[in-house]
Amino acid sequence: MGTIEPARKLTTILSADAAEYSRLMRADEEGTFRALGLCREAIDSLVEGHQGRIFGSAGDSVVAEFASPVEALRCAVEIQRAIEQVDEGLPERNRMRFRIGINLGDVLVQGSDLIGDGVNVANRIQTFAQPGEICISASVHEIIRTRSEFAFEALGPVTVKNIAEPIRVYRARPLTGEHAPARTIARRSLRSARWALLAAAVVAFLAGGLGLAFYSGYLRSPLETEVTSPAVRQASIAVLPFENLSGDATQDYFADGITEDMTLALGRFSDLAVVAPEAVRQYKGKPIKPGQLSTDLGVRYVLQGSVRRDGDRVRVTATLSDAETGVQLWSDRYDGEVKDVFVVQDDITHEVVGTLAIKLSAIERQRALAKPPDNLQAYDYLQRGREFLRRYTRADTREARRLFERAVALDPTYASAYVALARTLLLTATSGWTELTAQYLNEAERLAQKALELDSSNAGAHAVLAEIYLGRQQYDLARAENEEAIALNPNDAASYATRGAVLTFSGEPKESVRSFEIAMRLDPSVAIVRQYSIGWPYYLVRRYDEAARWAEAGIRQNPVDYFNPACLAAAYAQLGRMEDAARAASATLRAWPFFHVETFVSQFRRESDRVLIAEGLRKAGLR
Fold this sequence. Notes:
- By secondary structure, this protein is of the alpha+beta class.
- Among the domains are: about 10-180, Nucleotide cyclase, GGDEF domain (Alpha-Beta Plaits), CATH 3.30.70.1230; about 190-335, 3-Layer(aba) Sandwich (Rossmann fold), CATH 3.40.50.10070; about 540-623, Serine Threonine Protein Phosphatase 5, Tetratricopeptide repeat (Alpha Horseshoe), CATH 1.25.40.10.
- The chain is built from 26 helices and 15 strands.
- Helix 23 crosses helix 26.
- The longest helix is centred in the middle third of the chain and has 29 residues, at about 340-370.
């Protein structure tokens, strides 16, 4: 008898998942369970009403199939609306938001179950949706893109786990107000957001000016956005349409794609407000006077650039300027070879936006430091505190904590201030500056969770939680939080650096090296070297020369930490440089007189890593 081929079919898959379900369960297990039951009742009923079928369910997630992509998207919109209605009857601590992904693809039929890439892609796409949002694949978009009831926003090609080729993802939303899921920048209550929007609309109408909606992370219409003053809460930037210098009008799409990707990527930084593209589009191809965009759009910075494509070569330039004075603050250039247009767009965005964000942070810190002490707002205190925190000393960390506490006192809804305050407690605990390590880590965790209550898309909060769990040697929790941070902001150097640290201790040094290299490419400054012992993953993959080089750099920037001299001692010993190894061993003991090899290696999860580290340390003379 021949082998029976499995049945296959083309179908639409909807994947829905409750955001932050683990946190909600930790906070209130019974209340969260009841809330999930109410949400599932609504979801199950709507799926059936749109001729769908649920074939997978695991706690907080639902996977369903539909014969029609249009019905799947309509169902998703109604699910988000129904969840909002459920939330209105629940206590704040039990309210749930779902992320939904939809894909049209070929699947294997296994009884009542469906398996294969068609299902996997839907599950991956769902992770790109913010809580309360819907993301779809290009295959779904191709069929429903002309439907007048929906609006779509391209997120570009994305590489996802266990899927060989990059996939194009779009954010979908209904154009009709009654179906639009409520979202606000500050994550305040729906009622507060509506009053704030009404007030903003009235002011804009009376002034006869242009109503501009700022957004963080994704495009929002005025009906969906709570307008906050970027001068008070965050820096603001307008991304002007990049100019096509190729001499070929058919290449306009490439320049437009770069502009769109840059705008979206910058919007993922929680401390940066980005002007909506439709408000900036009017300036395309027009001369702009210094101060014009500052007056017209109320922004502090302007990013502009050009794209020149010649055959398979492409050059992209980007320039950051002060919107008020027109003074150029930063510029960068990307040269590359076009093999896959969308992959190149991704690379350019990753490269330029990552370094631009670091430059903006430095400029904002200096701006805050230059202000008179009696004229500071919460945002200024945050920036001043960050300047002290990056010095990595006990006294400076204490001062940073004081400044962050002041920021929280001035604005108790400022999520980034809670994240920064949590980081001071984390650093105090992990640097040995307190005997109350567990107490400090617990308080840091509480502050990070508070930040996520205020802003569930704050990548920094997830990154801090990853480091807290790493400090407790809860490696799986640390990994999960860090992956969430990177999913929220794939251009943030600090999240990749945290990932490198997590992977170092949890037994994946090769992947850790890759993460640190991405972080250093995004942020070539000293900050990452200062905060992380980058030498250890290189040591664990037996690249001892590079381990020693990074450890030496770490010692120069952070001489009080014992991780770097310990790494240097072990690396030198493995290289046979025994006199240098002995000096590094002495430096380790000066930094931490109670250093003990067995205690030190116990932090590393993998047995082979512990053996290799202990071998080098003992060769260097440490016990």
